[in-house]
Design goal:
Number of strands of chain B: 22
Largest sheet of chain B: 6 strands, mixed
Shape of chain A: globular
Number of domains of chain B: 3
Helix content of chain B: 25-40%
Radius of gyration of chain A: 21 Å
Order of helices and strands of chain A: HHHHHHEEHHHHHHHHH
Strand order of the largest sheet of chain B: 6-7-8-3-9-10
Radius of gyration of chain B: 24 Å
Number of strands of chain A: 2
CATH architecture of the largest domain in chain B: 3-Layer(aba) Sandwich
Structural class of chain A: mainly alpha
Strand content of chain A: under 5%
Oligomer: heterodimer
Bound molecules: adenosine-5'-triphosphate, magnesium ion
Shape of chain B: globular
Helix content of chain A: 55-70%
Distance between the termini of chain A: 23 Å
Strand content of chain B: 25-35%
Structural class of chain B: alpha/beta
Largest interface: A-B, 31 and 51 residues
CATH topology of the largest domain in chain B: Rossmann fold
Chain lengths: 373, 511
């Protein structure tokens, strides 16, 4: 009886295929990116730049040259995993904003395995990644358990654990810490990883990106094809019905948080193993938070996370060129990103601007339940 | 009396589903019209168009002889149309007066209160009191809504509509959530309102109520207008036939029970409610193979908590739940259902379905992990679809599609999805809570026959219902509960409405 007010003629169209539904779901993100470009363009105009040449430079720099594509994909890799982490948790109705801390743990522990022991490459690479991911997963499991058994809201606990993880990793690589690089001088970092732990590139393209895509496909498969995925999505959609259906809701919450954190942790591991060759905290600033933007832009679809991350990665990869050619500060790119986030997170605003009838059924994503949920 | 409303040729489609097909309806001031029809016939859709929730594809609405331009509920309210939804739209922590005045507050006249738009409580309460006296709708204006029983909350909803000047009141299945006594009171209030000149559209599946209160009935079937009748000329039988299009057996036809060994035995059960106070205080009873045990009682006497404790959803504080010979006290819902307990839950929207899942996924909501629906943890969707198609056919779920989300189904069809799922699995005990709430007469007949059929197949049935007729018609034995305890268990054939009514109210039953 309280069904939402809808005058959408398509709402009852049951025969529409999954593909059509998927394409319909793309409209909102595309419009959001477009609106962000328009508003960003106005800001650029005000600050005295030609938005068209700026955007052309971004496309040229990040998506058209071989080295540019390599750099874009390198930037996109942790974003795919960070975005997956957030998207995956969303499916169970959980808002993981601790991606940053989980990513730092993954980056630091993978680096530790990478520099401290010697193994054959085929084992060393995945082993370091797995350790990074699993340490992060442990943190996620703690968050999940606090939620399941004590009712502690994951938004609060993940934020707090961001500080814990940040300070812990800072300590580990600090001058008094066990993993400090003695050659680093004042810089807090680990020693360089052994070559056997370094993820190679394939031409210009970092192989880590393919790992990330593999995880995206795996997450999609898990969610949509397995009974475990059904349990996760049921828990997210209606916790009471999940319990009624015999699903162990607490177990699902803990496992989902652990998997989500694992993905973020692997994102960190790839940073250490694929990009920097060591762990240094400042290399990973803000990546976990970009995951939220990406998950929303992808409307929590694991596959769609890939293009969303490539887009944001491309924006990030263009900052140097923008600074050189236009004297545009990197913050402009942050503003563009923030605008995209704004428009995807506020579909009603987009609907108001675009008055597009069919947009009504692009169902809103609920960011987080009430404190009791 | 003067004509108040005319809906002319209204059509509304949802994709391929024609929910209303050229439907017309007239209503005079002071008249009560019953709107009848099977589940999914289009009753709610029709009144939602009147209240501005849906926009009609075509057709016109005249209110007071003028073309009414209603594009949202705000317009409807402004023109004098009020609607009481089945799920109330009240703010639980606010008082009755605050709820009724919400959006139309009398603000304090001076000082900080006026600046902040603080409500003038005394004035608001006086207004509410005057209103409730005028219509004989008794409520305490200063009571907090969440502390009130459902029936009183509904009265508050009606007062809210009247306070905004409603001259036409839409009641969509208002009695589905009421106790028999509350229902009687509501019917009285409706009569009083009609005498004051308010026109009422009354949607219900309970023919007894239709006969008791309406002046006229209009029947829809498959979205089409089928006909109207003067209530005085109608009988339950004639109305049921008009709705369903065939003759309906209103009384359940069942033979003698042949009870066997106990399947469920509840011993001295203690359970707390959501607020932590005692809801079930030492309940004991037994359900045997091949019998239907009816639990009669006014809602809120521990039935919900008892059922949830038996099915593993709620914690048992004391006592035992035994299936067959095995103790299942505080067992998980999964192990309970694996033992062979089917559960039709009382609150279908909350527990029984996942609204944005397809009908197919809801049909396997608790069997999704078993063969043939899954193999080694991977779902086998072709089997799920096959099963779901069978069930919607057998249980007459409309529309006949398994891909649409359950939210888009009418209330009664949601219930059919649950009943289909629970009665089709291979089980030993069926726990059915309000199994026919909101379900049309034809489907009630079907569900009742199914329950009897399950009994005859040797299963135990625990039937919890607020409908005395349902309890009396189906049960082989009847346990009456009051304040969390079984006050008396009667044999089905010797039980009378009066005796049970008395026991339910806490009387001894002997007097
Ligand atoms: N928002 C919607 N989207 C798609 N289909 C809908 C929607 N609302 C209603 N329908 C469909 O329209 C038809 C009529 O539904 P409606 O809710 O009006 O039935 P009803 O007569 O009120 O039934 P009930 O007695 O079960 O409440 C049904 O087939 C239903 O599935
Ligand atoms: Mg209805």
């Amino acid at each position: 009886m309280t069904s939402p007010v809808t005058t959408d003629p398509e709402a009852g169209n049951q025969e529409s295929s999954a593909l059509a539904a998927g394409l319909r779901g793309l409209r909102l993100p595309i419009i959001a990116v477009f609106l962000a470009a328009v508003v960003g363009g106005i800001l650029l105009l005000i600050s005295g730049d030609n938005p068209f040449s700026v955007y052309a430079a971004i496309v040229d720099e990040s998506f058209l040259s071989g080295s540019g594509i390599g750099r874009t994909l390198e930037k996109a890799t942790p974003l795919v995993l960070g975005g997956l982490a957030v998207a995956f948790a969303f499916k169970a109705g959980l808002f993981n904003i601790g991606g940053q801390g989980q990513l730092l743990l993954g980056a630091a522990f993978a680096a530790w395995i990478g520099y401290s022991i010697g193994l054959p490459t085929v084992i060393h690479i995945p082993f370091a990644m797995a350790v990074g991911g699993l340490v992060a997963a442990l943190l996620g499991a703690i968050v999940g358990a606090l939620k399941a058994y004590r009712g502690a809201h994951e938004v609060i606990t993940t934020i707090m654990f961001n500080f814990v993880a940040g300070n812990l990793t800072d300590y580990l690589v600090s001058r008094d810490g066990p993993w400090n690089d003695p050659e680093g001088g004042a810089i807090a970092r680990t020693p360089r990883l052994q070559d056997s732990a370094i993820i190679p590139t394939w031409g210009e393209i970092p192989m880590g990106f393919f790992f990330a895509c593999f995880f995206a496909v795996l997450a999609w498969w898990l969610l949509n094809k397995t009974t475990f995925g059904f349990e996760i999505i049921t828990t997210g959609a209606n916790k009471h019905a999940a319990k009624y259906a015999g699903i162990n809701v607490n177990r699902i919450i803990i496992l989902t948080m652990a998997i989500s954190a694992f993905l973020a942790g692997v994102g960190g591991a790839v940073q250490s193993q694929g990009v920097f060759g060591r762990f240094e905290a400042s290399n990973n600033t803000g990546l976990g938070f970009d995951g939220i933007t990406i998950a929303l832009l992808a409307r929590t679809n694991p596959i769609a996370v890939i293009p969303a991350a490539v887009l944001i990665g491309g924006l990030n990869a263009s900052t140097t060129r923008l600074q050189q050619d236009f004297r545009i500060e990197p913050e402009v790119v942050s503003i563009l990103q923030a605008l995209i986030l704004f428009f995807v997170a506020a579909p009603s605003v987009v609907r108001y601007i675009v008055r597009w009838k069919g947009l009504d059924d692009a169902e809103d994503i609920q960011l987080t339940g009430g404190w009791g949920s | 009396m003067a004509q108040l409303l005319e809906m002319r040729g209204l059509t509304k489609t949802f994709g391929p589903v024609v929910a209303n097909d050229n439907v017309s309806l007239k209503l005079d001031a002071g008249e009560i019209v019953g709107l009848l029809g099977e589940n999914g016939a289009g009753k709610s859709t029709l009144v939602k168009m009147l209240f501005g929730i849906y926009a009609p594809d075509s057709g016109e609405i005249f209110f007071d002889g003028q073309p009414a331009n209603i594009s949202d509920p705000g317009d409807a309210i402004a023109q004098g149309i009020g609607m009481v939804h089945q799920h109330f739209q009240l703010v639980p922590p606010l008082t009755v007066a605050e709820n009724i005045m919400l959006g139309a507050e009398t603000v304090a006249h001076s000082g900080v209160g006026a600046f902040l738009g603080r409500m003038n409580v005394a004035e608001a309460e006086a207004e509410v009191r005057a209103l409730s006296e005028k219509y004989g709708l008794h409520v305490d204006p200063s009571a907090v809504v969440e502390d009130l029983p459902v029936g009183v909350q509904q009265r508050v909803e009606i007062l809210k509509a009247l306070n905004r000047g409603a001259r036409l009141l839409i009641l969509d299945e208002p009695t589905a959530v009421l106790t028999p006594k509350e229902t009687d009171e509501l019917l009285k209030v409706m009569r009083a309102l009609a005498d004051e000149g308010v026109g009422i559209i009354f949607i219900t599946h309970k023919l007894r109520e239709v006969l008791a209160v309406t002046d006229r009935v209009t029947v829809l079937r498959n979205g089409k207008y089928i006909g109207s009748a003067i209530t005085a000329d109608a009988t339950q039988q004639s109305l049921a036939e008009m709705m369903v299009g065939r003759s309906v057996v209103l009384r359940v036809d069942k033979g003698e029970a042949e009870p066997g060994a106990p399947v469920l035995s509840v011993q001295n059960l203690r359970v707390k409610d959501d607020r932590g106070s005692d809801a079930v205080e030492g309940m004991s009873f037994e359900v045997r193979e091949g019998e239907i045990l009816g639990i009669a009682g006014v809602e809120g006497n521990g039935q919900r908590e008892m059922v949830e404790a038996i099915t593993g959803i709620r914690k048992v504080e004391g006592g035992n739940v035994v299936f067959g010979g095995d103790d299942f006290t505080n067992a998980s819902p999964r192990s309970v259902s694996e033992w062979g307990v089917a559960h039709i839950p009382e609150d279908r929207e909350k527990d029984g379905v996942v609204g944005n899942y397809s009908v197919a996924d809801n049909m396997v909501l608790n069997t999704y992990f078993k063969a043939p629906f899954a193999s080694r943890g991977i779902r086998v969707m072709s089997e799920v679809r096959k099963w779901a198609l069978q069930l919607i056919e057998k249980f007459d779920v409309r529309p006949r599609t398994i891909t649409s989300p359950v939210t888009s189904l009418s209330g009664g069809n949601k219930q059919k999805v649950i009943v289909a799922r629970e009665l089709s699995a291979d089980n030993r005990l069926i726990v059915a809570s309000q199994p026919t709430r909101g379900v049309d007469v034809g489907s009630i007949e079907f569900i009742h026959n199914q329950l009897v059929h399950q009994r005859d197949a040797g299963k135990g049935v625990l039937l919890v219902s607020a409908e005395l007729d349902e309890i009396l018609g189906l049960s082989d034995r009847i346990a009456v509960v009051y304040e969390g305890q079984v006050v008396e268990t009667l044999a089905g054939e010797s039980a009378t409405r009066e005796r049970i009514g008395l026991l339910m109210a806490g009387g001894s039953g002997d007097s």
